[in-house]
Structures are given as C-alpha cells and as structure tokens.
C-alpha cells in the first residue's frame, strides 16, 4: 500500500529540484551515468558494474506509478475497505505473538504497538505480500523517468550502499513497485539509517524477520519525530453549531480550548497539555477526530491524507477504540467531478497541483477558501453544491 501512495510524496517538491536531477535519454546511457557517479562518490568500479549488471527498465513499474484511482476514495469508504474484522483479529493476534518485541519497541522508541501493527497490516498484510517487483529495476526505472527523479535517484545509491555491505541482491531483492522492501515497506535509505537487528542474528532482514522489520519501523518513526508515550489521534463528537472554519491541520489549539468549544472524546479523555487539531475528513456531517502532534509524523511516512487518517484510526482500533461514528456525510464528488472542480479552482488562481481528481491538501485548502467566500460551511469537503456555485 505504501508504494501506491508513495507516488505523491514529491507533489510539492521545488521545481528547481526537478530541473537539477538528471533523467531521461537512452536508458543504457543513463545507467552508465549512474555508474560513473557512484564511482566518483567512492564506490569501486567493480562493485558498481556488478550492481548495475542486468538492470533493466520495467514498464510495469511505470504503469503502476500512473495508477492513482485509490486516492479518490473518501475516508469512510477507504477505511472500511482496508479495515476488516479479520485484519483486526490478526493484528491483535500478532500483537500477542510478538508481545516482547512490541514491549522493546515501546521502551526503546516510544512507539505504541497499534501504530506499527497498523502499518504492518496495510503495507503487506502482516508480511504475506511484500511485492514482487525487482527493486533495483524499479528504482532505476523511476530515476530515469522524468516525473519524480529527485525522489528515486538517491534511493538507487542507497541500494548500492546496501549491496556493497552484502545486504542487497540487485537481481533477487524484490518489493513494491516504488522500491520499498520488507514487511513494513522501507526504502533503501530508510534501511541504511534505521535498520535494526531485532532478532539478534547479526543481520537486518526486513523481508523475513518480523522483529527486524518492526524494530526498524519503530526506530524510523522515532527518527521522524515521534514523541514517546503520547497519543496520535482520537475520535470526538463536535457540536452541530461549531465554527467549522477552525477545523483542519492549519489550526492548532490546546486540548483545554477544544473542550471549552464543546469537543468531547468518544474513547477516554482528551490528552491534557497537548496542542491538537480537529479533523473532519468528510465534512461536518461525517466522523471527527482530534489529532495530536504525533499524527503529523504519519505524513513523513506517507503523504496521502486518507491513508494517514485510516492508518492512524486503525491503530486506535487495534488498541481497543470503538468503531467510529460515520455520521451522514454530504455526497462528495466522483473523480471526474473532482477534476472539474480542480479545473475551476485553478482558473480562479488557486494552486491545486495536478488536475488528478484527488482531494489533496492544496485542493482542500482551496475548497475551504471558496466555501468561506460563498458563505458556506467551511469544512473542506467538496460537494456538488459547491461545484455548481463555482
């Protein structure tokens, strides 16, 4: 799952970065340039030759990269698709099976077990399917492709470093189409920086060792800023007459202020002493969540708002939270309608990124601005009514 959603990570990358990263041209010449750069950076020519020998351009990787339909699914539908009773049961069973490992992760990195269990479930269905794309081919193919070379080119050299250490086989290592490897889908650079030998066998084996994968994931989350012992998200009830313009990640308030505004938790008390945001992924009539600082770390793992909301919520379910109240959200827009809305917003001067039918952060911000201008409830949820008024 991460590889599908990973494709949007550099959506907000500076244009200069795109222009400065070599890409395109004859594939063989591109590979030769990669080898020359590796040697210039201190890799032996023999090692570089062995790593790149047989590397090929993979059209299936490019086809997978162009598929974006999953991003158009709203939170309620997306979360129901990914979270099943079976996945919850297997997640809790894995929590018991690896109880000692999760205790170590919580003690060492401060990451709660539900968080890693949710990633493990969504990324590879608890390790059962880790992807069958050749990783070296995928990374070089996406580096050669000029859509986001600045994202993938550094990962090629990270994989080469792993190869030089005897920890990567360029012809046999497989994973997701975007180059992630192992049970929690980590990129080569992540593995270099955060790989942990969790089972004590002297190796970091993210594909075959759950302790290694989980400990590595915990270390990575800590390196991204995870705050030990703090929550990440919790479902809340919000008064019907609430000022919806206060919702969204752009606004943070102490939990005491949210309580004073009538926001009340559905699963235990609001955490005291923390800043938080109020999130309504499908508008004021849908589910509502309070998001704490740790929630923002999720976006360093993945840039999709819907995925992040679902993974964070699933983590709370695995730790005993109730099923969220889906409410009765207003009808949203299908993919074509969303593209039409983005086209209108772009024509009005908003930066919505690509016209892709995806309600990303920039599209959501533009929707909120237009809702305010039109005197509508400012909840960031685009509806046919809004489309019609534009």
Automatic annotation (TrEMBL):
Residues 335-390 form the Peptidoglycan binding-like domain. Residues 1-19 form the signal peptide. Keywords: Signal. This is Lytic murein transglycosylase. One of its GO terms (biological process) is peptidoglycan catabolic process. InterPro entries: Lysozyme-like_dom_sf, MltB-like, MltB_2, Peptidoglycan-bd-like, PGBD-like_sf, PGBDSf, SLT_2. GO terms for molecular function: peptidoglycan lytic transglycosylase activity. It holds the Pfam family PG_binding_1. Residues 27-315 form the Transglycosylase SLT domain.
């Amino acid at each position: 799952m991460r590889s599908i959603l990973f494709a949007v990570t550099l959506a907000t990358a500076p244009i200069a970065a795109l222009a400065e990263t070599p890409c395109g041209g004859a594939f063989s010449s591109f590979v030769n340039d990669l080898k020359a750069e590796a040697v210039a950076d201190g890799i032996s020519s023999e090692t570089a030759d062995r790593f790149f020998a047989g590397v090929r351009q993979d059209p299936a990787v490019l086809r997978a990269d162009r598929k974006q339909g999953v991003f158009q699914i709203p939170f309620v539908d997306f979360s129901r698709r990914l979270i099943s009773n079976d996945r919850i049961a297997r997640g809790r069973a894995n929590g018991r099976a690896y109880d000692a490992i999760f205790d170590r992760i919580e003690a060492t990195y401060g990451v709660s077990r539900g968080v890693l269990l949710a990633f493990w479930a969504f990324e590879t269905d608890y390790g059962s399917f880790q992807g069958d794309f050749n990783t070296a081919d995928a990374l070089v193919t996406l580096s050669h492709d000029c859509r986001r070379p600045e994202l993938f080119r550094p990962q090629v050299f990270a994989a080469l470093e792993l190869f030089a250490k005897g920890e990567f086989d360029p012809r046999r290592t497989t994973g997701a189409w975007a180059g992630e490897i192992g049970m929690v889908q980590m990129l080569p650079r992540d593995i270099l920086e955060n790989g942990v030998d969790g089972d004590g066998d002297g190796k970091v084996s993210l594909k075959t060792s759950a302790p290694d994968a989980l400990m590595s994931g915990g270390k990575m989350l800590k390196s991204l800023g995870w705050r030990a012992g703090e929550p990440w998200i919790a479902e809340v009830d919000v008064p019907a007459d609430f000022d919806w313009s206060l919702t969204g990640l752009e606004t943070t308030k102490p939990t005491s202020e949210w309580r004073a505004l009538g926001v009340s938790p559905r699963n235990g008390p609001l955490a005291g002493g923390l800043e938080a945001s109020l999130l309504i992924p499908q508008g004021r009539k849908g589910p509502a969540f309070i998001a704490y600082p740790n929630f923002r770390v999720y976006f360093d793992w993945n840039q999709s708002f819907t995925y992040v909301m679902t993974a964070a919520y699933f983590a709370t379910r695995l730790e005993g939270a109730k099923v969220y109240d889906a409410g009765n959200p207003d009808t949203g827009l299908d993919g074509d309608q969303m593209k039409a809305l983005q086209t209108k917003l772009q024509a009005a001067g908003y930066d919505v990124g690509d016209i892709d039918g995806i309600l990303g952060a920039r599209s959501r911000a533009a929707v909120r601005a237009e809702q305010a201008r039109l005197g509508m409830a400012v909840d960031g949820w685009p509806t046919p009514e809004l489309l019609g008024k534009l």
